[in-house]
Amino acid sequence: MTIEIIDVQVPAAWDDDSEGARRLRMLVDVRNAVVVDGWGGDESHAFSYREAWAQWQSQVGESDDLRTVALLDGVPAGRGYASRGLLEGTTIAEVDVMVLPSARRRGVGAALADDLVARMRERGATTFQAWVDHHPEPGPTMPSPTGFGEIPAASAQVALLQRYGFELEQIERASELRLAAAVPALAAHRADAEAHAAPRYRVETWEGRAPAERVASLAALHARMSTDAPSAGVEHEAEGWDAERLERYETSQLDGGRTLLRAVAVEASTGEVVAFTTLAGQGVAEPWYQHDTLVHGEHRGHRLGMAVKVANLLALAERDPGGVVRTWNAEENRPMLSVNEALGFETICQGGVWQRKESAA
Ligand SMILES: CC(C)(COP(=O)(O)OP(=O)(O)OC[C@H]1O[C@@H](n2cnc3c(N)ncnc32)[C@H](O)[C@@H]1OP(=O)(O)O)[C@@H](O)C(=O)NCCC(=O)NCCS
Fold first, then answer.
1. pLDDT tens digits for 163-183?
2. Fold of 176-348
3. Boundaries of each N-acetyltransferase domain copy (predicted)?
4. What pLDDT shows up at residue 284?
5. Which residue from 24, 83, 243, 343 has the least number of CB within 10 angstroms?
6. Alpha-carbon distance 58 to 135, whole Å?
7. If you measure from the C-alpha of residue 158 to the centroid of ligand 1, how many angstroms do you get, rounded to a whole number?
8. 109 lines ligand 1 (CB under 6 A)
């Protein structure tokens, strides 16, 4: 039995006959097979080649990434991913390994992890982090050190992470909203939120790129996501956002074939964006993903979180009345969870945020 690890670079295209595009598709196939298996066969958790390609492209210059495929006796058996920030957090590396169910317990996961950790260490990483979906399973549980949430303790993932010295830092709740069931209550939520927000704030929605007059304040607000969202003991550095970074984010979604829906709250007296929320998805019959939501610290307490979320969901309902929206939130993020619970989001899985800190050499 031989395990060979090959690198996958960002190819110029995802759909041609080049070796690079072939490797991208091989990696995405492995990733999708593992994720769909983890979700009990639910294929809506798969990503398209194009989505992956656009995401990879957008990270060039922003992060130093390693993408690998493990071949077990010449056949794809696992995939590795590691990413170290280039703009901030340059000593922090995210790592993720996935092994096909048919190839487990043969050292593939450890081989992928050893390779990623060693190479990221060489590039200066001293903190390693992993974001892992922990699907419900019977048996003992492990509580979050934050005091909020717990995960199944007896899984292969937990065993592998602990073997590598990772510690659980935080638990996220993955939850899902079914629009058809939620829509009847949305009008009442909107009326209530707007009654609190008006006339000081007004809500705007759009599809695609931000209008020019909203770019500067929206970019500034994006930066606050890295400092204002609860991060427990998870090491991170404040992100700097400008118009170009906002544009790169938009490109990463639009070039992947996704539709981007935004709702913002604008302070009428200044014209500044003070709250925003984002939905991204491939379109009807595909899931929608809730990306960042944030209300500026000086503008909290006016139900702007609910106002922007409900406006975006109503905009989505016009396009995809049967849509499903997925979101991940820290279990200790009570303000955000309260909004989501009121809207009708229901828990589908727990996400563990794991970390291993090494002292700098
Ligand atoms: C976690 C995962 C990557 C392990 O892959 P794998 O190829 O089976 O792992 P390995 O064979 O290299 O095992 C390495 C070590 O992890 C631990 N381990 C892995 N699977 C285990 C299991 N089912 N039970 C107990 N320990 C396990 C053991 O310590 C093992 O070493 P050992 O075989 O010498 O006892 C795989 O189960 C997987 O892809 N799961 C779903 C995706 C995922 O959650 N990825 C994130 C993982 S952090």
1. 999 999 999 999 999 999 999
2. Aminopeptidase (3.40.630)
3. 28-184
4. 86
5. 243
6. 29
7. 8
8. yes
